[in-house]
Design goal:
Strand order of the largest sheet: 2-1-5-4-3
Number of domains: 1
Order of helices and strands: HHHEEHHHEEE
Number of strands: 5
Mean pLDDT: 83
CATH architecture: 2-Layer Sandwich
Helix content: 25-40%
Shape: globular
Number of helices: 6
Largest sheet: 5 strands, antiparallel
Distance between the termini: 28 Å
Length: 173
């Protein structure tokens, strides 16, 4: 809103500055979604950098480049016990929880009354079998608001194929 006020007031430049404007000056409105889009791209790049760093630290054979063209709102890495090791910046926007708040907790904290038991069973089975899964489920934000979430769970393994963690690629639907 303050940027809109600044941009609106550019029409009211003092005479000394008005004379400096060339006849060829073309004004283009700065659109709010341009700024949001830039911020989201920066967040996505930062999330992918952190995931690549974790990948190197844990020696996963996972190539983070596969996520570059993926649409996601949040990334979450858990250990084999489903404890959250890391969550991306977008996790807060999607859930209301700051990433630091959920470290050590299980992603099931987002589930609630309308989360389908059959979907929860599918997720639990895939994880216990060290397999990936793609599904949609109703999750709940920190404030109790429900949202539909598309989740892709990817087992993260070392070159010897030993699964050590899981990556959840999440998008609000």
């Amino acid at each position: 809103m303050s940027l809109d006020i600044v941009l609106e007031n550019l029409n009211d430049l003092p005479d000394s500055l008005q004379k400096q404007k060339s006849a060829k000056t073309c004004r283009h409105p700065l659109l709010a979604w341009d700024m949001i889009s830039m911020t989201l791209k920066e967040e996505k790049i930062e999330s992918l950098r952190k995931l690549k760093s974790l990948s190197q630290e844990y020696q996963w054979s996972f190539d983070t480049a596969t996520l570059v063209k993926s649409k996601f709102d949040a990334l979450v890495v858990t250990d084999l016990n489903q404890k959250i090791l890391w969550a991306s910046i977008g996790f807060e926007r999607m859930t209301g929880y700051k990433p630091a708040e959920v470290i050590g907790l299980k992603p099931s904290l987002l589930q609630g009354a309308k989360t389908e038991p059959s979907t929860k069973r599918k997720i639990k089975k895939a994880i216990s079998n060290l397999k990936g899964l793609e599904t949609a489920l109703i999750n709940y934000k920190k404030d109790g608001t429900e949202y539909l979430c598309h989740i892709r769970i990817i087992p993260l393994h070392r070159e010897n194929q030993q699964v050590t963690h899981f990556l959840a690629v999440e998008s609000s639907i």
